[in-house]
């Protein structure tokens, strides 16, 4: 089985961001710093997150890290968005994720019935990550 996971890069606030996603998706969060792996070439990077992994409830897996100072600013937004989708059986769960992501972010497209019949919405969270939520009108 091949698994594809989003891996988000942050400009020094990965610990805060991953803890936020943990509050959204539940599950287990593990983080390791550059110092823990002996990879803090710049002392300013020692306490930054070299790897974080959230194994959330319902099979959600999200990874993230701080960009080391030698690599520059990872930027925000960009050409990548993270998509959450499911059917009617997951409606309440997906709407719960939506509400938590949007609470301190901004709405791009309201989560409502789209022309193709599914409930769809887009938002940007407080860390600049764009999320798409699609709730299929068909049972899963």
From TrEMBL:
UniProt-recorded name of the protein: PhnB protein
Domain Glyoxalase/fosfomycin resistance/dioxygenase intervals: 10-131
Entry-linked Gene3D superfamilies: 2,3-Dihydroxybiphenyl 1,2-Dioxygenase, domain 1
A Pfam family per the record: Glyoxalase
Organism in which the protein naturally occurs: Agromyces cerinus subsp. cerinus
Classification via PANTHER family: PROTEIN YJDN (PTHR33990:SF1), PROTEIN YJDN-RELATED (PTHR33990)
SUPFAM superfamilies in UniProt: Glyoxalase/Bleomycin resistance protein/Dihydroxybiphenyl dioxygenase (SSF54593)
């Amino acid at each position: 089985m091949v698994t594809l996971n989003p891996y988000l890069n942050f400009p020094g606030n990965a610990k805060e961001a991953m803890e936020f996603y943990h509050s959204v998706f539940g599950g287990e969060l593990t983080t390791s710093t550059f110092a823990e792996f002996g990879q803090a070439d710049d002392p300013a990077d020692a306490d930054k997150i070299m790897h974080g992994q959230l194994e959330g409830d319902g099979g959600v897996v999200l990874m993230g890290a701080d960009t080391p100072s030698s690599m520059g600013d990872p930027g925000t937004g960009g050409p990548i968005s993270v998509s959450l989708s499911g059917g009617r059986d997951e409606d309440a769960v997906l709407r719960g994720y939506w509400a938590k992501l949007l609470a301190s972010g901004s709405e791009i497209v309201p989560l409502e019935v789209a022309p193709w019949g599914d409930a769809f919405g887009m938002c940007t969270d407080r860390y600049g990550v764009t999320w798409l939520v699609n709730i299929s009108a068909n049972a899963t």
